[in-house]
Amino acid sequence: MVxxxxxxxxxxxRPTVDxxxxxxxxxxxxxxxxxxxxxxxxxxxxxxxxxxxxxxxKQAARQTILARYPEWMQANLTARAVELVSLGExxxxxWQRMQSIWAWIKAVRSHSDLLEADVAACTTVDAVEGxxxxxxxE
Length: 138
Description:
- This protein has 138 residues and is mostly helical.
- It contains 5 helices and 2 strands; from the N terminus they run αββαααα.
- The protein has a two-stranded antiparallel ribbon.
- The chain starts with a helix and ends in an 8-residue tail after the last helix.
């Protein structure tokens, strides 16, 4: 928790290089900025935990989407959709399949947004850590 709070307070700070911790104590401080106080670290704990959980949620959503539809496939579908629109062919089975794919991607993104909203509503680090990342649409 201390490492996470320090990284939130000092973006770019590198554990083991710029600072070291042991449990809840800072054992080495190599940054030019003053070492944070215990009160500053405590105040940073919740926003740091929330930021880390939001990042983990976004990464999990990305991995979920890319596992089913890699970037190359999404790029090809986008290019083909542009062609179909330019040809006025937006009612056939190919178009419907693309719409189905996009609906699923939007559902994953919406679920990610809901998980992030749950994180934002948390008032303790324990509550943030208790949020389970998953439950993605099938």
